[in-house]
Amino acid sequence: MKKAKKLLALFLAVLMAMTCLSAISASAIHDEAAANAQLAAWEDSRVDLSGVYADMSEKQAESLMKTLDTTLAAVLEQQNVKAKLYCDTTVAKLIVTIFPILDDALSGMGGGGISLSLAPSTVALGLTAYPEAAACLMAAESWADVDASKLVFGIEPGNGEQFRTVMSAVVNMGGLGLLVLMMLQDYILAPVLEALHSSTPVTAADAAALAAAQTSDQTEMYTLTIQYSLAPLFDAIDLFFAHPVEYLCDILPDLAYTYDNILVPGLLEGLGMQLPPLSQLLGDLLAGLTDTTGVAFPAIDTNKLVHMGSAKVVESVMAIDMNHTTASDPAAYVPGYRVQIDANKPMVFAAVAQYACEVLQDQNNQIAIGRLVVGAIGPEYQEDYDAIVAAAQSGSNLALADACLDLADKVIDSAAEQGGILGFFAKIAAFFNRIAQAILDLFKIF
């Protein structure tokens, strides 16, 4: 009875959210004319970006970007990082990290005598194909009781397809996750997935139709629907592994523009959520990183970032008329439009190098970062780090990028000779674990 009440509370929460979303009907941000107006506004707000190439030509930036991209991709492949990501341990860590946060957020939404929660047993409802993990979650009274080591799914390390299936089942939550996902897919999630520049997102209706054509089992159908819906996100991870530096330079301007010009207005008007502008969000995030690392980060000019490339209006999976577009009637789907930013990747790379230079010109930052670097990869690389600092102090973005490349090459060569690169990556992973926790703590305030 207790679990049934929790499920009812969650259904009520979803229904309330759906009622709020109806306010987005025929929203101007999805209209072609409005998209053209946004494009005109983007053109009008152009800024002078000539300073990005003050020390590094576009040709040099492109060459360095591709070299660093090849180097990092080789490291990821050499260390079989996919096997470390696509595995049971990753899924288990995500479950015990993210769902407790969501549970806390839901508990703060309750009102009128309704107690909202996302118990472990609710997540277990979508895991009928993974009995060991489901049993572990069903037996737990709270998230504090969940033993992550017992969340077993049978993913062969490095098997991306199995990882996609398991993650989709986790998100499913016995159909509840699917309900929320399909509610958000065409209006909020789609533009973000499109900004990833991977595979083309499908509408909620198309995802459901594709899944129904694959199986008649309800739980499996729900999981497949989520998998089809989130395919661009999974594909983006594969693109990152193949070209980590170049891919990030490609998507950053479009993601930044999508956040401020589609998500913020859409969510604020339709749901009443106080989603902060990107500049504020990044400011809070950087402040959190300062607390974690001791490194002071300058503010990021997001307006410059979104103008590092060209813009155009493209057709989008977003629906422009919710009154006539429903998941149950695919024929009623009306396509939407959005402004897409095609990045000037060498410029984005040069800007990132310039920002890194600015960070490293601060003497206190040099000390803090030096401790992090030496602590992570060993004191034998102190001279290489000093070379990076010297390049930053000279104000040469080109020299800075070269010094970073020299350090990366030296670490790779040394690790290959000594066979100790696994320990090196373990230290790096531990450092980024602390960064990830800071990010999660930041999102607890929303």
Report on the structure:
Helix content is 66%, strand content 4%. With 446 residues, it is mainly alpha-helical. The longest helix has 28 residues. It is globular and about 65 Å long. It starts with a helix and ends with a helix. The N terminus and C terminus are likely disordered.
The value of Rg in angstroms is 23 Å
Shape estimate: globular
Strand content: under 5%
The neighbouring-strand order within the major sheet is: 1-2
The sequence of SSEs as H and E is HHHHHHHHHHHHHHHEEHHHHH
On the 0 to 100 scale, the average pLDDT is: 78
Helix content: 55-70%
User: Terminal Cα separation, in Å?
Assistant: 31 Å
Residue stretches low in confidence (pLDDT < 50, at least 5 long) are 1-28, 416-446
Number of strands: 2
Overall structural class, as computed from helix and strand content, comes to mainly alpha
Q: Could you describe the largest sheet, including whether it forms a barrel?
A: 2 strands, antiparallel
- DSSP helical segment count: 20
How is this fold's topology laid out?
Blueprint: H1 2-21, H2 32-44, H3 58-78, H4 81-85, H5 88-107, H6 120-124, H7 131-138, H8 160-172, H9 176-195, H10 204-212, H11 218-229, H12 231-242, H13 244-271, H14 278-293, H15 302-306, E1 309-319, E2 335-343, H16 345-360, H17 363-377, H18 382-393, H19 397-418, H20 421-443
Antiparallel strand pairs: 1-2
